[in-house]
Amino acid sequence: xxxxxxxxxxxxxxxxxxxxxxxxxxxxxxxxxxxxxxxxxxxxxxxxxxxxxxxxxxxxxxxxxxxxxxxxxxxxxxxxxxxxxxxxxxxxxxxxxxxxxxxxxxxxxxxxxxxxxxxxxxxxxx
Length: 126
Known about the structure:
This protein has helices spanning about 1-10, 15-25, 55-65, 85-90, 105-125; strands spanning about 30-35, 45-50, 95-100. By secondary structure, it is an alpha+beta fold.
């Protein structure tokens, strides 16, 4: 109960405009498909599928650049299993990348991510 109370005191309303900006920017990358871009979703989460690459390889390449993202199933991220939810929705699961927009994430952060992601995808697709 105390933890819930503290969480509510520290709750910051999520910025839907930032999520929309992220979706727009990520959609501009060739070979990227944003998962359910028009669905009601948590504003701090965005998932994409990058065709022709491994999600795990993309995560490693971005991590080497100091950018932390996730791949695999959100339900059990520790085992890097493909997302059964994406599969059920009809999306490819191999190139899945999941982004979390943390409190303090800016449009500049997203633009930097997109620029780095473009380079990583070009490298992996060679």
